Amino acid sequence: MKISRPIHPDFLSLLAFKDPDLVYLFKDLREYILDLCPDSNELLYHTHALTAVFSISDKLSDAFCMLPIYTNHLNLGFNKGTLLKDPEKLLTGTGNLIRHINVNEPGDYRNPKVEDLIKEAVDFAKKDMDRPTKSTGKTISKIKKKQY
C-alpha cells in the first residue's frame, strides 16, 4: 500500500498502541479515501476514539467522513449519513445524522457501492458548505499533547 500523505506524528504515536490488524485497515482505508478525495483536509482527534476526519475545509462542520479507531474495531463513518442515498443499506447506526459501515476487511470498503457513498458525501458537504475554503490537502492535528 502506498501512502500519498504521511500520517501526522501526533496520530502515529497513538496509532502504535492499537492492534496491528486495525492499524493496517486504518492505513488502507485512509489511503482509499485520500485517493478518492486528494484535496480533502484530514483533521485528527483523540477523544473516546482515535479519529481521522476528512473535510472539504479546515472545519469539522464541513466533514464528509471519518475513521474512528476504537479498542477492537474500526468504522467508516459518514457525518451526515442519514441524508445520503443508501439503496444497498450499507449504513448502520441510530444517531440523528451519523451513520457508519463496520470495517473488518478491505472488501468492506474497497467496492463501487462505498465509493459512491463517499463521493455523494463529498458532494453533499460541498453543497452544504457555508463559504469556500482556501485550505485543501492538509493534515491538521487537533490532538492535545499531555503536559508532564
Question: In terms of topology, how is this protein built?
Answer:
Elements: H1 9-15, H2 20-36, E1 41-46, E2 50-55, E3 63-69, E4 74-78, E5 99-103, H3 112-128, E6 139-141
Parallel strand pairs: 1-6
Antiparallel strand pairs: 1-2, 2-3, 3-4, 4-5
Describe the structure.
The protein is α+β, with helices and mostly antiparallel strands. It has 3 helices and 6 strands; from the N terminus they run H-H-E-E-E-E-E-H-E. The protein has helices at 9-15, 20-36, 112-128, and strands at 41-46, 50-55, 63-69, 74-78, 99-103, 139-141. The longest helix is centred in the first third of the chain and has 17 residues, at 20-36. The radius of gyration is 15 Å and the shape is globular. The model has no long low-confidence stretch (mean pLDDT 90).
